[in-house]
Amino acid sequence: MTTFDVSGVTINAIDRTEAVAAIASWLKASDGSRAIFTPNPEILWHAQRDPRVRSALRKGSLLIPDGVGVVIAGRLRGIPNVRRLTGIDLAEAICRQLKPKTYLLGARAGVAGRAAGTLKSWGARVVGCHHGFFSPEEVPGILGTIRASHAELLLVALGSPRQEVFIDAHLDELGVPVVMAVGGSFDVWAGDKRRAPVVVRRLGLEWLWRTAMEPSRLFRLWPLVVFFWGMAFDRQRRP
After folding, report:
1. What is the model's pTM?
2. Domain ranges of the chain
């Protein structure tokens, strides 16, 4: 599997078909839990500043190039065939093709339940869900519920960097073969938010669409600026 390094984090240059095939083998292996992360420039910006996030990403079994900035970074590093693979698209492909027993953790109260209806329509066997607004004292009980569900796939939508830190802290306690960070996917699957049109996604401008739909996200563009600035200097240092 081709990989490349961005900000000290190893990214897998992998397409959806290859990723689903790898995950299918993990579901059959029964040899521990594996984490899937979906780094974009914002997540990598957090990783540069927070050792907990950096540690989590480095322990992941699969890190897909979710953001267009990560794709550009890969091409600048000599990987011409790297393509964007979003977490929301990969999670849908897993549910449709592998139909795993799935638990949903995250988002506001009620959102995960409505998102579960969409996953069921794809063939996933939803075995439970819980909202993401829980206290540290509630964590042991939530972990126990997830273990008791015998889930094969746990989708964690706690927002970054909380979801990465949560997965890393509890991966060995969950008893789930595949644990995946999916950001705001539950809101889309529940019908509360719309994704950008396909043409916008293909142009790599989904981040701009989301900012236009949610102006409060404007402050989150700063990590994108820092990321590209860092890439420019890194490019200059490379022979």
Report:
1. 0.87
2. 3-233
pLDDT digit string, tens, across residues 169-190: 999 999 999 999 999 999 999 9
Which class for 35: exposed (0-12), middle (13-18), buried (19 or more C-beta within 10 A)?
A: buried
- Write out the chain in H/E/C secondary structure: CCEEEECCEEEECCCHHHHHHHHHHHHHHCCCCEEEECCCHHHHHHHHHCHHHHHHHHHCCEECCCCHHHHHHHHHCCCCCCCCCCHHHHHHHHHHHHCCEEEEEECCCCHHHHHHHHHHHCCCEEEEEECCCCCHHHHHHHHHHHHHHCCCEEEEECCCCHHHHHHHHHHHHHCCCEEEECCCHHHHHCCCCCCCCHHHHHCCCHHHHHHHHCHHHHHHHHHHHHHHHHHHHHHHHCC
Mean pLDDT for the chain overall = 88
| C-alpha–C-alpha distance, residues 226 and 12, integer Å | 22
- Statement: residue 236 has pLDDT above 60: no
Q: Which amino acid is present at 203?
A: L
Q: What is the pLDDT of residue 104?
A: 98
Bridge partner residues of 6 (DSSP): 9
